[in-house]
Write a structure and sequence with these properties.
Elements: E1 3-5, H1 11-22, E2 26-28, E3 41-42, E4 44-46, H2 51-66, H3 68-74, E5 76-79, E6 83-87, E7 92-96, E8 101-102, E9 109-110, E10 113-118, E11 126-127, E12 130-134, E13 137-141, E14 148-152, E15 157-159, E16 162-164, E17 167-176, H4 181-201, H5 205-221
Antiparallel strand pairs: 1-14, 2-4, 3-7, 4-6, 5-17, 6-17, 7-15, 8-9, 10-14, 10-17, 11-16, 12-13, 12-15
Length: about 220
């Protein structure tokens, strides 16, 4: 399941992040990639060991946690630190699948879902599309600044070469309460259905039945 969430960051948050990243120190992004992905990862990544980056990570983390669409579709139980990256002209990230477990002893996170928060106006750069392979069909995404996409981290995906401008983004990996993407999609559909029924009928017998099924499936499948 792929979820695109608009306006995850406010205009003020987006402005603060852009201002800080303009003067931030960037390093070779390949330094955090696995041995095979390192061969195809050509981007820059912010050095996270600074006070300003801790503040920026907090802004993106809080925005993710307050976004109802992302919370309902991802059902997070743990998450990695936020990473900020930049693609200049000629940079790209070839086809790869994300590492299944990130972090170390005591802070390991199973990467069920990858989230990209777009930070650049899509008109300010050419190329740089995030392309996700879903059952052999590739879908390209280039969202408005402040919007986010969540997609299964076990899918092959890549970022196309930037040919003009610069592409900035924030990246998060999330461990879900529900490990299987197909089950998360069923829960997402039921959650949307019960909200629509409530909006149309209020707390009707149909709403109660859908709510019961949604809650009991989550209870059955949740890994907490």
């Amino acid at each position: 399941m792929i979820t695109c969430a608009p306006n995850v960051l406010t205009a003020e948050e987006l402005g603060a992040i852009r201002s800080e990243l303009h003067d931030a120190s960037f390093v070779d992004g390949a330094s955090t990639a696995g041995w095979s992905a390192r061969e195809v990862k050509k981007n820059l990544q912010v050095d996270i060991n600074t006070e300003s980056q801790a503040r920026l990570r907090g802004i993106v983390r809080d925005a993710f946690l307050r976004n109802a669409m992302l919370q309902a579709s991802v059902l997070p139980s743990a998450m990695t630190q936020v990473l900020f990256n930049r693609y200049d002209v000629g940079m790209q990230y070839g086809r790869h699948v994300d590492a299944p477990v990130m972090g170390g002893l005591g802070n390991a996170v199973r990467s069920d879902v990858a989230i990209t928060v777009f930070l650049s106006d899509p008109k300010s750069y050419t190329g740089g599309d995030l392309v996700v392979d879903t059952n052999g069909v590739e879908y390209g995404f280039k969202l408005d600044a402040g919007s986010a996409i969540a997609y299964p981290a076990n899918s092959l995906h890549h970022v196309t070469p930037v040919t003009q401008g610069a592409r900035y983004a924030a990246i998060i990996w999330v461990q879900s309460q529900v490990r299987e993407a197909a089950k998360r999609e069923l829960l997402w559909d039921l959650d949307n259905a019960k909200r629509q029924i409530f909006g149309r009928e209020g707390k009707s017998p149909t709403f109660d039945a859908i709510s019961k099924s949604h809650a009991n499936l989550l209870r059955m499948w949740a890994d907490v």
